Amino acid sequence: MLESTVAAIQPLDEAAMAAARELQGRLTKPAGSLGALEPLSVRLAGLAGACPPPLPEPAAVAIFAGDHGVHAQGVTPWPQEVTAQMIANFLAGGAVVNAFARQAGASVTVVDVGVATPIPGADSEESADPAGPRLVAANVRPGTRDMTVTAALTRDEARAAVETGIRVAGELIDAGAGILLTGDMGIGNTTPSATLIAAFARVDAEAATGRGTGVDDETYARKVSVVRAALARHEPDPADPLGVLAAVGGLEHAALAGLILGAAARRVPVLLDGVIAVSAALAAAAFAPDAVGAMVAGHRSAEPGATAALRHLGLEPLIDLGLRLGEGTGALLALPVVTGAVRVLHEVATFDSAGVAEK
Ligand SMILES: O=C(O)c1ccc[n+]([C@@H]2O[C@H](COP(=O)([O-])O)[C@@H](O)[C@H]2O)c1
Ligand SMILES: Cc1cc2nc[nH]c2cc1C
């Protein structure tokens, strides 16, 4: 499934992009006045192979959740159980992602791809609201292994998680989603994110590592040395993305890479959230360089590694608000920008049709 998905990912359609550029030039606004929205609209036309491309509706957030063996190294102050507890909060509709999803009219799907502790209330008989958040049980293993000691995952485990992401992308698109938004939950997951970024973007451990949920100086120093130790132990080879994900990744990172590949193969845009998403996007781009055509960077996470990853991908984020929450929150806030970029091509009059004089 991974190989056939990668093989299905094709370059953007040049004719549709040329048509969108030409249309942008005829709309009743000075050329270039919509800034980054103009090239975004062109790229989305190229992805859809149509001008105008479809409005990116409805939107679906997929939150992949996993735990991390490297938690044992003291890289985060939060207990591991918070991952499962926050899933219960997502399913009850009480997290920031739920508030923003309601605002954006987006569905929320939570995927347990590797949570280590029981999800409170997950086995309850209570009939769930069919329009409310949904839980997909796809646990590959209860958290990764500690990457400072051994590979976080076997290649088979990493593949299973990637294929879960591909499957979820296909299901959401089959159910009608016009855009997928990445979400994540995993206490400790900014450490594997930093390690993936250092490995794929070839930046130093310190440049790739940030303070995650807000760690103190002592924990930050430990975190950088954990990233360095994992890189030294595994010497991850960016030409072997499955190997990199297995050595130093997380189950949610692997699944997010799969979601991105699945969206790109179906030519549906995928709106990236923060540092976890962009580290997974590096893996997706290593599998299939043309997958970058489907990626839209929602925001610039406060994590420094996110900026390094976006630079490597050649993506400019749509918004920059200093967010560092994850869950898909930054992607949801950026969604109206993406919709606006496409709506312009559908609804704005041309100089000719509106009788507005050109310079
Ligand atoms: O999205 C981001 O850029 C982001 C930046 C910092 C932290 N997070 C979230 O915080 C958790 C990981 O932080 P930490 O400090 O435990 O590695 C995880 O659940 C992420 O969703 C997310
Ligand atoms: C409370 C909390 C909420 C989160 N949402 C995403 N990561 C998180 C980490 C913590 C600790």
Structure notes:
The protein has 359 residues and is an alpha/beta fold. The chain has two domains: 2-53 and 345-354, Nicotinate-nucleotide-dimethylbenzimidazole phosphoribosyltransferase (CobT), small domain (5,6-Dimethylbenzimidazole Phosphoribosyltransferase, Chain: A, domain 1); 59-336, Nicotinate-nucleotide-dimethylbenzimidazole phosphoribosyltransferase (CobT), large domain (Rossmann fold). It contains 15 helices and six strands. The chain has a six-stranded parallel β-sheet with strand order 3-2-1-4-5-6, with helices on both faces. The relative contact order is 0.18. The structure holds nicotinate mononucleotide and 5,6-dimethylbenzimidazole. One of its GO terms (molecular function) is glycosyltransferase activity.
Quote the beta fraction. Answer: 5-15%
- The CATH homologous superfamily name of the largest domain equals Nicotinate-nucleotide-dimethylbenzimidazole phosphoribosyltransferase (CobT), large domain
CATH C-level class of the largest domain: Alpha Beta
CATH topology of the largest domain: Rossmann fold
Spatial strand order of the main sheet: 3-2-1-4-5-6
Biggest sheet layout:
6 strands, parallel
Mean pLDDT: 97
Number of helices: 15
Beta-strand segment tally? 6
Shape, per Cα inertia axes = globular
Query: Order of helices and strands, N to C?
Result: HHHEHHEEHEHHHHHEHEHHH
Radius of gyration computed on alpha carbons: 20 Å
Helicity level: 40-55%
Q: Total domains, how many?
A: 2
Secondary-structure arrangement, i.e. CATH architecture of the largest domain: 3-Layer(aba) Sandwich
Distance from first to last alpha carbon: 53 Å
Computed structural class: alpha/beta
EC number: 2.4.2.21
GO molecular function, one term: glycosyltransferase activity
Function: Catalyzes the synthesis of alpha-ribazole-5'-phosphate from nicotinate mononucleotide (NAMN) and 5,6-dimethylbenzimidazole (DMB).
Pathway: Nucleoside biosynthesis; alpha-ribazole biosynthesis; alpha-ribazole from 5,6-dimethylbenzimidazole: step 1/2
